[in-house]
From TrEMBL:
Residues 3-84 form the GST N-terminal domain. PANTHER family: GLUTATHIONE S-TRANSFERASE FAMILY PROTEIN, GLUTATHIONE S-TRANSFERASE-RELATED. CDD domains: GST_C_8, GST_N_GTT1_like. It holds the Pfam family GST_N. Transmembrane segments: none annotated. This is Glutathione S-transferase domain protein. GO terms for molecular function: transferase activity. Keywords: Transferase. It comes from the Bacteria. Belongs to the GST superfamily.
Length: 211
């Protein structure tokens, strides 16, 4: 187990909440560097030096600085192998695990954002995801085999997707099919989810009080 603490650059109730959830699921030693995005702290020079895109999450671990949510998940789950949330190299599930990590950022998020903005996916040969319906078809087909993305094995990919599907269905960006609803229910039952929600609520309340 690594002895270095992980610093998570975090803003409550954003994409970085899923990274916070992963740290909790891993039992990792971490510190939070909390940003108030409503006050524009993520656009200040200090944070732009961490992530020029001004986005969260980002993590610092020793000399390593990692941005982009799937990369952070892959890095952290491999960093704490004793938690058993990442199939190791040589495991037959390693490839499918990586597939679902990358599919999230390369297909799911672009498709959801385009759908929400009522934008066309673009020509098939140029679109990174094809169509929204195709993306969601793949997700639902996999969840139908459940209970998790890797079958019976819960992994860091489920931490990522559980949070993402809970948020996107809540805001009606993704249809809540029976498969997705059941998957979200399993996600919500995990004790770490309640801990993160409580912590985010307290952080958000503190930011509102300071505004």
């Amino acid at each position: 187990m690594t002895t270095d603490r992980v610093t998570l650059y975090h803003s409550p109730n954003t994409r970085s909440s899923s990274a916070l959830l992963l740290l909790e699921e891993l039992g990792a030693p971490y510190d939070l560097h909390v940003l108030d995005m409503r006050a524009g702290e993520n656009r200040q020079p200090a944070y732009l030096a961490v992530n020029p895109m001004g986005k969260v999450p980002a993590i610092r671990h020793g000399e390593a600085l990692v941005t982009e949510q799937p990369a952070i998940f892959i890095y952290l789950a491999d960093l704490f192998p004793e938690a058993g949330l990442a199939p190791p190299l040589g495991d037959p599930l390693r490839g499918p695990y990586l597939r679902w990590m990358v599919y999230y950022g390369s297909c799911f998020e672009p498709a959801v954002v385009d759908k929400a903005r009522e934008l066309d996916a673009g020509p098939q040969a140029m679109s990174p995801y094809g169509s929204f319906e195709a993306v969601m078809g793949v997700v639902n087909d996999q969840l139908r085999r459940g209970p998790y993305l890797l079958g019976e094995r819960f992994s860091a990919a489920d931490v990522l997707w559980g949070m993402a599907l809970a948020w996107t269905t809540m805001f009606k960006l993704v249809p809540e099919t029976p498969e997705i609803a059941a998957y979200i229910a399993r996600h919500t039952e995990r004790p770490a989810v309640a801990r993160v929600r409580e912590r985010d609520a307290a952080l958000a309340a503190g930011q509102s009080a300071a505004a």
